[in-house]
Design a protein that fits this description.
With about 260 residues, the protein is an alpha+beta fold. The protein contains 9 helices and 8 strands. The strands form 2 sheets. The protein has a 6-stranded mixed β-sheet, covered by helices on one side. The chain has a two-stranded antiparallel sheet with strand order 7-8.
Length: about 260
């Protein structure tokens, strides 16, 4: 089993009728081989694969649990199932998830830290682009899911890069420029205040735990990021790869400034 890529031929597929998890068309993929994870497979929007892959893997580097995402390699025999080939992502399916019980989360230091870590991920990557989605599992704890709207990357931007490289590159350059001027602290504080409200706790008391994930993110190296973007480079256009790498550098700088303010 690959660390980053799984082949669709190793799974059987069943349509998932569920309003959550982003997009409309999804599959539950059951492995044909022992040792492979059961997956939630998204194949409708080409942004889903790159954003979900990057966020889930960066979460791991930050020490926060998020269901692990894999790029799905397709072959002729089942490509008809995936009209947006090759932009397909499989995320490890958590069998026993339910809604988060915030009273229980408040009382458990472990669950509370997981929730704050997941909220920090959302503040970093999603910039209030979508409603945060959290779940609870007795085996996994509290975790975030649905990263389709992350990094401001949309289907339109990717298609623009694919069909008009110069225009796509220019648009991504403008997006980075806009992000460089964007006040990250506002989103970070809004997410912290939201977490405090759900837990009925003081935000300042939660801040040290909340900041742990961001501080770990700032220690993620360029080599570690390149290890992830290299996997996307065979599928997605080069300007998007560069965008991810530069976005992460800018975000690390913004977080450093934000963290220093509250030391």
């Amino acid at each position: 089993m690959g660390d980053y890529i799984l082949n669709t031929v190793n799974y059987d597929y069943k349509t998932l009728n569920h309003e959550g998890f982003g997009v409309v068309c999804k599959y539950i993929a059951t492995p044909k081989r022992v040792g492979y994870p059961r997956l939630l497979v998204k194949h409708e929007n080409i942004q889903s694969a790159c954003n979900t892959f990057m966020c889930s893997r960066l979460a791991g580097l930050c020490g926060v649990y998020a269901p692990k995402a894999y790029i799905m390699s397709t072959s002729g025999e089942n490509r008809r199932l995936f009209p947006m080939h090759p932009f397909v992502v499989g995320t490890e399916w958590v069998e026993d998830f339910s809604a988060v019980d915030y009273d229980r989360t408040k009382k458990s230091p472990t669950l509370r830290q997981q929730y704050l870590g997941s909220m920090a991920l959302y503040a970093m990557f999603c910039r209030i682009a979508d409603t945060p989605q959290f779940a609870y599992s007795p085996t996994k704890g509290v975790f975030a899911y649905d990263w389709d709207e992350a990094f401001d990357v949309t289907d339109f931007i990717i298609k623009l890069c694919l069909y008009n490289s110069n225009a796509g590159t220019e648009q991504l350059r403008r997006m980075l420029q806009h992000f460089s001027q964007y006040p990250f602290e506002g989103d970070a504080e809004l997410c912290l205040q939201s977490a405090a409200a759900h837990l009925n706790m003081d935000a300042d008391n939660l801040r040290p735990s909340y900041m742990q994930t961001m501080e770990r993110f700032c220690k993620v190296t360029e080599e570690q990021v390149a290890d992830l973007t290299d996997e996307l480079a065979d599928i997605y256009p080069t300007p998007l790869i560069v965008y991810y790498e530069e976005y992460i550098k800018l975000l690390q700088h913004k977080i450093t400034i934000y963290a220093n303010k509250y030391e």
